Each structure stands twice: as structure tokens, then as C-alpha cells.
Amino acid sequence: MGTALLVYIPVAYLADRGGKKKFVLFTFVFFTLFPLVLLFCQSFALLVPAFILRGFKEFGEPTRKALIMDLAPENRKAAVFGLYYMLRDMVVALAAFGGAFLWMIHPAANFLIAFAFGLIGTVGYAIWGRDIVSGQP
Prior knowledge:
- The protein has helices spanning 2-16, 21-39, 44-55, 61-71, 77-105, 107-128.
- It has 137 residues and is mainly alpha-helical.
């Protein structure tokens, strides 16, 4: 959480002055790397940098929320924001349920599958994700 506190406001400030996509993309990279890094942690000393990396997931959090709002139609912002979080939470709930089955296969399967889906999503966003610069779609 200390890492998140240190980066949250400066990144939001920088994102308001330039494109948002690169900050959101970095957030996705941190989300993607965390399960893989956690998988290979074999001691407390290695967990410390892993959870510092985990704190960087907040890197683009305010920027991601702002981008959702910027891309939403002017008269539907609240509905789009709610729809985004409903769909995201449904996927997360299904993934958590599926994680129980992956754990029965092998505990490492959860981390590797999470990394793979994160990689697919991150690459997809890098290719097809839209950007907003200075409030212009």
C-alpha cells in the first residue's frame, strides 16, 4: 500500500497532462507480472519486492477510471462506468471460481493462467486500446 500511496497522485497528475493509455498500459503490465513474480518467491525477502510490485498496480488506477469516463458518451457516463465494473466483477468472480479447479490440478496453474490472461489482455489493450489526450477522444 505504501507503493500505491507514493505513485497514485503523481501519476494522475502526469496523465492529465498527456496521454492516458501509457499509464493504463503500465498498470496492466504490473497486474500481469505479479502472479508470475509471486509464483517464484521462495522466501520472505523475495516477497517484499513482489508486494512492492503489487503496489504498482495502482500506478494507473485513477487514469483508468478517468479514461473510462472520457470514452463514455456524455449522457451515459454513470451507466457506462457501472456496466464496466459489473462486467469486470463478473469476470473476476468466475476467475476466482475457476481458480479452485486450477488449484486441484496444481497450485502453480493459478499463477501461470493468471499471467497468461494478463499477457493477452495487456497485449490486446496495447494494440486496440484507445487513448485520450487533453480530454479529446
